[in-house]
Amino acid sequence: MFRGGVVTVYVSDMDRAVRFYTDGLGFKLVERHGNNWASIDGGPGLSIGLHPATPQIAAGRQGSIAIGLYLDGAIDPAVVDLKKRGVQFTGPILDDTALRLAYFADPDGNPFYLAEMKPAYR
Questions:
Q1: In b/e form, how buried is each residue of 1-38, taking b as 16+ CB within 10 angstroms?
Q2: Residue 63 reports pLDDT greater than 80
Q3: DSSP string of 19-51?
Q4: On the CB side of 48, how many CA atoms lie within 13 Å of its CA?
Q5: pLDDT tens digits, one per residue of 7-57
Q6: Mind giving me the DSSP string for the chain?
Q7: By the 8 A CB rule, do 116 and 69 touch?
Q8: Nearest to residue 111, comparing CAs of 63, 48, 47?
Q9: Whole-angstrom Cα distance, residue 99 to residue 70?
Q10: Among 21, 65, 80, 122, which residue has the fewest nearby CB atoms (within 10 Å)?
Q11: Structural domains of the chain, with CATH
């Protein structure tokens, strides 16, 4: 029935958002339609659509969604690399039972987290 999907992220500045997702996170820009829409390839199984905020849907609204990015390697070097690209993390890497997690946000405050599955849980 379904062939795929997209996570839509509402942003206040399309140029800034595209730079963050491509230069900051290293994702690939698939298409862009001016300041109306941009599609970002977030890796296998993740498509991110960037849409301008509207009066009804503000950019960076907290509490309703977070985008998790699963790592295929260790979290420590990923955090170091992303910090070099300008990504600002909101705290230290957290140790959970099965995961190690690092939280950050895009320029509008939309929440993200990196997740490294611990070897015993892979």
A1: eeeeeeeebbbeebeebbebbeebbebeeeeeeeeeeb
A2: no
A3: HIIIIIT-PEEEEEETTTEEEEE-STT-EEEEE
A4: 25
A5: 999 999 999 999 999 999 999 999 999 999 999 999 999 999 999 999 888
A6: ------EEEEES-HHHHHHIIIIIT-PEEEEEETTTEEEEE-STT-EEEEEE--SSS-TT--SS--EEEE-SS-HHHHHHHHHHTT--BSSPPEE-SSEEEEEEE-TT--EEEEEEE-GGG-
A7: no
A8: 63
A9: 10
A10: 122
A11: 1-53 (3.10.180.10), 66-122 (3.30.720.110)
CA distance 116 to 108: 25
Which pair of structure tokens corresponds to residue 1? 């029935």
Cα separation of 36 and 47, whole Å?
A: 17
Token reading at 97: 């039972």
Place of tokens 């907290």: 62
